Amino acid sequence: MAENKQILDVQHIHMQFNTSGVCVRAVTDVSFTANEGETIGIVGESGCGKTTLGRCIVRAYQPTSGKVMYTTREGETLDFLQIDKATMKKYRKEIQMIFQDPYSSLDPRMTVLDIIKEPLAANFPKMPKAEMERRVMDIAAKVGLNTTYLKRYPHAFSGGQRQRIGIARALVLNPRIIVCDEAVSALDVSIQAQVINLLHDLQKEFNLTYLFISHDLSVVEYISDRVGVMYLGKLVEYARTEDLFSRPMHPYTESLLSAVPIADPTVKTERIPLEGEIPNPANPPSGCYFHTRCRYCQQKCKECAPEYREIEPGHFVACHFAGELGLRGISYDE
């Protein structure tokens, strides 16, 4: 992917929710970049802020602060979070989202044809109806839907088929970036594999850039070029997939990797369980957010927040002792 140009530069995103006088820090100072045509995986425990980050990037939420610098097809770089309504209407279609639940993300009162066609009608109101339907048929066929069934309603389709409808709806506007929010987590394992392979094939055909949000590290490893690990709203590690899985530099990443099942009975794995609960994001710990559950914790970790820094080329870590701990990753050469 090195030859591809940078398409997305997420800079210092903060997202706070204020409810009943309580400030919840859902995302805190997250930064990363993505190149055109690659997949960025975002992983972490439930509640770590993955979905909130994805929604901030597509501007479903307006972040408290930060920038999402997007490089357009024309080569212009703009802050997607600050553009005016007219500019937003022009570029909105280039950054789309696939939602987690294929059941609740589709309007049960609309036919599948109308669901996929709706983005076209909103963005191109003067497009002839026949051309719209032709475009819908083409995209539906590409995602593996039977085009003779498009006049049916979502309840007539299985979970995997509904997720294909969601993918078609995101693709119909010819986007460049798609945020996949737990796009396969609600599906059976065999259907997951089909949808992941479909996403991979579509990426190659349309040169798509994915932000793939998931809690399943096995899926993320398969589909991602680079991976970011989030904990309590912060990005604690970000690196090429192979580097992160084989040589993690953050204790939280090491613990997550120890739980990944390996389909080889000759390889022995040792779990590294995390003690305690995830801290309350409305009242996070002092210093390093992870120190309350870290087996390498020292006094410095309790007092000072670690800097998110580049330890090796392309390998960013937020840990005071990154590179010194000799953490264990996953090796497939044994």
Features:
eight-stranded mixed β-sheet; 334 residues; single chain; Rossmann fold; 12 strands; globular; alpha/beta; 24% strand; four-stranded antiparallel β-sheet
Describe, in plain words, how this protein is organized in 3D.
- This protein has 10 helices and 12 strands.
- With 334 residues, it is an alpha/beta fold.
- It has a single domain, classed as 3-Layer(aba) Sandwich (Rossmann fold).
- The longest helix has 18 residues.
- The two termini are 28 Å apart.
In short:
The chain contains ten helices and twelve strands. With 334 residues, it is α/β, with parallel strands linked by helices. It has a single domain (1-105, 175-325), classed as P-loop containing nucleotide triphosphate hydrolases (Rossmann fold, 3-Layer(aba) Sandwich), CATH 3.40.50.
Present the secondary structure layout:
Layout: E1 6-19, E2 22-35, E3 39-43, H1 50-57, E4 65-71, E5 77-79, H2 85-91, E6 95-98, H3 112-123, H4 129-142, H5 159-171, E7 177-181, H6 189-206, E8 209-213, H7 217-223, E9 226-231, E10 234-240, H8 241-246, H9 251-258, H10 299-303, E11 308-312, E12 315-318
Parallel strand pairs: 3-8, 3-9, 6-7, 7-8
Antiparallel strand pairs: 1-2, 1-4, 4-5, 9-10, 10-12, 11-12
Helix pairs in contact: 3-4, 3-5, 4-5, 5-6
